[in-house]
Amino acid sequence: MTPIGTRGEAPLRSDHDIVLARQLVRRITQELKFSLVDQTKMVTATSELARNALIYGRGGMMHWEILSGDSRSGLKLLFADQGPGIPNLDLAMTDGWTSGNGLGMGLTGAKRLVNEFEIDTKVDGGTRVTIVRWK
Amino acid sequence: MERIPILRMGEFLLVTIQIDMHDQLALKLQDDLSNAIQQHGTKGVLIDISTLEMVDSFIGRMVADISGMGKILGAETMLVGMQPAVAITLVELGLSLPGVATALNVERGMALLRRKIDADGADDTDRH
Question: Which of A29, A130, B72, B119 could be bridged to A34 by S-S, CB 3.0 to 4.6 A?
């Protein structure tokens, strides 16, 4: 396997891109030697956020970066879209609430699967969700 | 066109999901299954996900929908083989798949499904 480097990006423009994003995150977390459960959590969070960027944000990008601290390593992912933004963030962060036809578990569920979660959204200015999971 | 095969075994339908499905493929499977249940008068559907490395809210909803829809069409659904890491993640994600019957593996799932169907059959005989 060729070395993956420490950062990169992947487009989120189609259903197939969501699958590729999941596979990329699986591969990076494997190289970082995450436990199987932690790999699965990060891959599942990726799937939720990539789908959000595609469906609600009308497509976007996933940026990834490997973090290496003194004693730990981790993976940071940024899901960025130029969609309509989220008018009511408190509501969007409620379990079971959805503006589309999903289950309403995407944002809140993804948040529970990672160590750090940050969301930055502006009406008509797109949405950026950053997540970090440490090994 | 890409699709997940559905195997028919008497009054059962068997589905093994072995690939990382994109969303449209999952929806297609849901469609194909409901048609197959109706066409064959299926009593039980067994879905094996033992090789799936991830179940997100989309796939979770698909399974719950198949189970609910199957019930309306007179079929019991059994989800089998979920990997422990997937189960842990799914619960943390907030999906406990209410109303979806599950079993550890295909063998146990099949036995449970048979028992369920036999019990339903007995109920029917009592009533008529």
Answer: A29
